[in-house]
Design a protein that fits this description.
Blueprint lengths: L9 H11 L6 H28 L9 H18 L6
Length: 87
């Protein structure tokens, strides 16, 4: 395991101490979890951004009826996969 040393302002150190008390036994544990959460949030934001960049960029144009047929087909496949009966 690698050690990382950080310095924080006194006010931030007090805020960490106050916030972590009921949930974490050490500052290190609290900070590790905070870093993991931040990394997860950044990855989620990257994924959302990439999805939005590609949203609606179909290579071919389809008609409304074709889109409806595709949606129905996909719905039936998911229903079958998860044991859901469609009307």
């Amino acid at each position: 395991m690698e050690s990382i040393t950080i310095k924080v302002e006194d006010d931030l150190a007090k805020e960490i101490e106050k916030t972590m008390k009921p949930y974490y036994s050490t500052k290190t544990e609290f900070i590790r979890e905070a870093i993991r959460d931040k990394i997860k949030n950044i990855e989620e934001e990257k994924t959302k951004k990439k999805l939005l960049e590609n949203f609606g960029k179909a290579k071919t144009k389809i008609t409304h009826n074709q889109e409806r047929e595709i949606r129905e087909k996909v719905s039936k496949e998911f229903a079958k996969k998860y044991g859901i009966e469609l009307e």
